Amino acid sequence: MRILVVEDDPILSDGLRAGLSLTGATVDTVETCSDAEAAIGTVNYSAIVLDIMLPDGSGLDLLRKLRSRRDGTPVLLLTARDSVGDKVSGLDTGADDYLAKPFDLDELAARLRAIVRREGGRAAPTLTHGAVVLSPSDLSVTVAGKSISLSRREFAILSALMERPEQVRSRAELEERLYGWQDDIESNAVEVHIHNLRAKIGRDAIQTLRGVGYRMGSAR
């Protein structure tokens, strides 16, 4: 999943990017509401981690704008404001979850997985398609019960395809899941990762619709 972190503390922001990247996420970071709005307007994020107190305004105002235009991107408020009243206000404004600072990174990652799962209409913590079972919590994949080793980007592509196995994902959509702003996009990276995935989970596991994109097929 691709996450936007809106946090003006550079040390915390860098730590979140590094820590969430270890959980398989692609992470972009911004420091202000205005930069967050620009980012949200150009990238389809799986979720947003949003501080409330930002240099150019309140994260709650940004959240209101998102919800007023029916943007349902899951939002987790991450803030030092930890009173019950603050939490109630944040959730009633449209946040999907609320976590007070200081926090545990593993808990934050688990909460993000939960709100993304709910937004996708899934109850199970794993993704299953045929014989393939993918677990976002520990970045593991099995095929017919056998553990399969994937790179971080192979895992990201497979996860994107398995979230909605019947939906065709374009190359651009998959690149958006793989690369953050700081990454250089390799011209044939998606094709290479798809080739490697087929070798590991089955030649027919991923279908190519020429000129359109990719979707899940049948796994061995």
- How does the overall form come out from the CA principal axes? elongated
Percent of residues in beta strands: 15-25%
Instruction: Count the DSSP helices.
Output: 8
Major sheet summary line: 5 strands, parallel
Termini separation: 25 Å
Order of helices and strands: EHEHEEEHEHEHEEEEHHHEE
Structural class: alpha/beta
Strands ordered across the widest β-sheet:
2-1-3-6-7
CA-atom Rg in angstroms: 18 Å
Number of extended strands:
13
Approximate helicity band: 40-55%
The stretches of 5 or more residues where confidence is low (pLDDT under 50) are none
Mean pLDDT: 93
Which helices and strands, and how do they pair?
Layout: E1 2-6, H1 10-21, E2 26-30, H2 33-40, E3 47-50, E4 53-54, E5 57-58, H3 59-68, E6 75-79, H4 84-93, E7 97-100, H5 105-119, E8 127-129, E9 132-135, E10 140-143, E11 146-148, H6 152-163, H7 171-178, H8 189-201, E12 206-209, E13 213-216
Parallel strand pairs: 1-2, 1-3, 3-6, 6-7
Antiparallel strand pairs: 4-5, 8-9, 9-10, 10-11, 12-13
Helix pairs in contact: 6-8
